[in-house]
Design goal:
The complex is a heterodimer. Chain A is mainly α. Helix content of chain A is 69%, strand content 1%. A two-stranded antiparallel sheet of chain A has the order 1-2. In chain A, helix 1 (13-50) runs antiparallel to helix 2. The two termini of chain A are 20 Å apart. The model of chain A is unreliable at 441-446 (pLDDT under 50). Chain B is 78% helix and 0% strand. The radius of gyration of chain B is 21 Å and the shape is globular. Chain B starts with 11 loop residues before the first helix and ends in an 11-residue tail after the last helix. Chain B is built from eleven helices and no strands. The chains are: A mainly alpha, B mainly alpha. At the A-B interface, helix 2, helix 3 and helix 4 of A face helix 2, helix 3 and helix 4 of B.
Chain lengths: 446, 328
């Protein structure tokens, strides 16, 4: 039932490990591949339409940066998501791979085509005719978008796996889940907006003499076009969220500590959109180019919005990692009754038998912490439990563990026997206070 | 009850056949990437006195940057298929060496960035700061050389469930589980040999960018890189075989290995002929292609035998320790 050893990422914790790798991938993939392909081809097309070949030089310089980024950090962080989930959430990724195997298999061929096209596009510059080269660029845009269209279905199914439940009924129902159109529109908008702002910023340095202002206007226009998609997709996404997911928004949009500032979070979002609009409008009207220090602001803003959306998307799934099927700590919902009855340690393959007594309880508690808490918490790093239970005695900890899912609806329920709950409380207590000495030496095994 | 009890999306046998095919396509490009790095560095070093080799090194590095991207994307397929066909063994061993396993991503990312510095810096950085330029190439190669050690440790550890409960780390597993180091030597020699074949074929084309004399020299260089590591495999190969755990070799695996060895012997003779002037590199490459297919297939059969053996012995010792998903 709990067939895997537990990996603990020191200090940042498992959740942040996956989050960091995934965010890096999303930022590179959305800005340099999905949106970046559009922006580079736009500049190249501009050269053909206007006959001003400085656009082509700009397109090549932008393509070089995006090519290096996508084929190094972008590609490896994509594989990195699998590596990190494999060690931090093996049941989740293993289950998703089984249900969405064919989507991933097709995605693999789309990746191959995307890579082939980006290499042909970049390396055939000056070798193919301009018209042919542009056609390769269009094909590259199409393939990049297709990768997004496929992965969005898989990600969305984790929140809304379909009426019959995850792994049941039609896989396509889970794939084309209620959040699918909203996510696709939102991600497309964010990808276009972010890459337009990145290209605007880069053009200030890379554009050949005299072209920077034209490039600023071209990319500001595209950032402006992206805005309705962001608003429409974001609005639709909020609309299709379940009531439970909506109830988690205050924490998802900020953190548990600042959840009561929800209004502040909403205002922050609105201000971001106003800044986005104002910046693009001013960029279209200005007769001079921005300085880099100003142009970088919308880049940070749109990247922040993309990261913010990922944070919200990840958080509103809680207490599940796959809604209704798998809790965030990798314990299957269907196993809960058995684990409550037999105890979680009885089914944990990699937990040895510990002796009875206070020290044995602490060790059992530590093992339970690793099985049930370590996917989101650390001991003394991010979301660390040592600080959270600093002034709590064992009784208070036991009391909280018993109702944690009611106090914090984003937390999975404790799974296991009463004795195991007490063992976990003893371990958590021991993080701040030394345990009493054993009254007598331990005898026998648990 | 198992952690992952969802039905397999494809018949297991089909997933395993697809895994072998996908693995071959991936590993050939990994060979070309690593072998390309090593040969480029070596030739770059030689080119200090023979500058006419420099255009070849430049073209080889450009090719390596392409091969490395193909290798990564082609690696997604085997990763997907091994996750389906060997979920529990593969995930367990990955978790047990998690720190090293996760380091693969950082190592390869930095290596690829260094490779791009080596490649794109050819016309400017190499002239202005030759030490930094060569350093980028050396750094990329050293980082890439570490990665197969981690992969081999993982694939060996996944076949050794008897040690899983001890929760061994990476370095212990590297030295004590299976035969990581002999397989590493075997892999490095294969990388050099396959890249040697590719060099002699790619630069042997009439439409090659090099001048005819330089082209002939590069072709001979490629043949030598194909030949000598292939001969050395006749030392490394038996070491790999003799260090395999008992019961690894089924009759079919032995037959496949025998075919592979015969083909590689044929390839060696054809390469020697080619060095003497009768160009038969294409035929030799075809034979090596058969060898690769045979070796990859026997590697799969060895994996199956070892996992089945481990499951049987663990079932006999303690029914609770059987490998989920591998129960017969």
């Amino acid at each position: 039932m709990l067939d895997f050893p537990v990996f603990e990422m020191p200090w940042i914790g498992n959740r942040w490990l996956i989050g960091l790798v995934a965010s890096t991938h999303v930022l590179i993939n959305h800005s340099a591949a999905i949106g970046g392909s559009v922006m580079v081809v736009l500049a190249e097309r501009q050269a053909l339409v206007t006959g001003d070949w400085r656009w082509e030089r700009l397109a090549y310089r932008l393509a070089l940066i995006f090519f290096v980024l996508t084929t190094t950090v972008g590609a490896l962080s994509g594989v990195g998501i699998w590596f990190t989930t494999m060690v931090a959430q093996p049941v989740a990724i293993g289950s998703l791979l089984r249900v969405h195997f064919w989507a991933w298999f097709i995605e693999w061929f789309v990746f191959l085509s995307e890579l082939a096209l980006v290499m042909v596009y970049f390396m055939s510059w000056g070798r193919l005719s301009r018209a042919q080269h542009l056609k390769v660029g269009y094909a590259y845009i199409a393939m990049s978008f297709l990768t997004l269209a496929i992965i969005t279905g898989i990600l969305g199914s984790m929140l809304t796996p379909g009426a019959a439940g995850f792994g049941q009924g039609s896989v396509l129902q889970g794939f084309f889940n209620p959040s699918y159109p909203a996510q696709l529109i939102l991600r497309t908008g964010l990808a276009l907006g972010l890459s337009a702002f990145v290209c605007l910023c880069l053009s200030l340095k890379l554009a050949p003499d005299g072209l920077a202002l034209c490039a600023q206007r071209l990319y500001a226009r595209w950032a402006f076009y992206a805005l309705p998609l962001v608003c429409l997709g974001g609005g639709l996404y909020l609309f299709v969220l379940s009531d439970h997911a909506k109830s988690l928004l205050p924490v998802a949009m900020l953190t548990a500590r600042f959840a009561h500032w929800l209004q502040g979070g909403v205002w922050l979002l609105l201000i971001s959109l106003v800044v986005w609009t104002t910046f693009t409008w001013l960029s279209l009207k200005r007769a001079r180019v921005w300085s880099i220090s100003v142009a970088v602001i919308p880049v940070m803003l749109s990247a922040g919005l993309l990261g913010y959306f990922e944070r919200v998307r990840e958080f509103v799934r809680k207490p599940y990692v796959i809604t209704g099927y798998l809790y965030a700590n990798g314990i299957k919902v269907s196993d809960r009754a058995t684990l409550d009855q037999d105890g979680i340690l009885a089914h944990a393959r990699y937990v040895p038998q510990y002796p009875r007594g206070i020290e044995g309880d602490r060790l059992r508690g530590q093992a339970i912490y690793r099985l049930e808490c370590a996917s989101c918490h650390t001991i003394n790093g991010l979301n660390g439990l040592q600080a959270k239970v600093k002034n709590w005695d064992e009784t208070a900890i036991v009391g909280f563990i018993g109702i944690q899912e009611r106090v914090h609806p984003f937390m999975p329920p404790f799974v296991g026997t009463e004795a195991e709950k007490k063992a976990l409380a003893r371990y958590l207590r021991s993080l701040n206070h030394s345990l009493p000495q054993e009254a007598h030496t331990s005898r026998g095994k648990h | 009850m198992e952690s992952i009890d969802l039905p397999l999306p494809v018949p297991l046998a089909l997933a395993k056949v697809a895994l072998v095919i996908a693995f071959i396509s991936h590993i050939v490009f990994v060979n070309l990437m690593l072998g390309g790095c090593l040969i480029a560095l070596h030739t770059h070093f030689l080119a200090r006195r023979r500058s006419h080799l420099l255009p070849f090194v430049q073209q080889l590095i450009a090719a390596v940057t392409v091969h490395k991207s193909i290798a990564v994307v082609l690696g997604v397929g085997p990763l997907l298929l091994i996750s389906i066909a060997y979920t529990t063994p593969f995930y367990t061993s990955s978790i047990l060496i998690a720190s090293a396993w996760l380091a693969v991503i950082a190592l390869v990312t930095v290596a690829f960035l260094m490779l791009y510095i080596y490649h794109f810096g050819w016309t400017s950085l190499r002239i202005r700061h030759p030490g930094w330029h060569a350093g980028a190439g050396v750094c990329a190669t050293v980082l890439l050389l570490m990665v197969p050690l981690i992969y081999l440790t993982n694939t060996n550890l996944m076949l050794t469930p008897a040690v899983w409960k001890q929760q061994p780390g990476f370095f212990w597993s590297l030295l004590h589980v299976g035969n990581v180091l002999p397989r590493y030597a075997h892999f490095l020699l294969a990388s050099l040999a396959i890249t040697g074949f590719w060099i002699s074929l790619w630069w042997g084309r009439t439409q090659s960018d090099l001048a005819p004399e330089a082209r002939a020299m590069v072709v001979r260089l490629g043949i030598r890189w194909a030949l000598f590591p292939s001969v050395a495999q006749f030392v490394a190969g038996p070491v790999v075989l003799f260090t395999l755990p008992g019961g690894a070799l089924s009759p079919l695996a032995i037959a496949l290995l025998a075919i592979g060895i015969i083909c590689s012997l044929g390839a060696i003779f054809l390469l020697i002929d080619s060095l003497r002037g009768t160009m038969r590199v294409k035929s030799a490459a075809l034979l090596i292609g058969v060898t690769i297919v045979c070796m990859a297939s026997s590697r799969h059969l060895i994996r199956e035998s070892l996992l089945n053996k481990a499951t049987r012995s663990l079932s006999g010792a303690d029914a609770s320790t059987t490998i989920p998903g591998m129960r017969s």
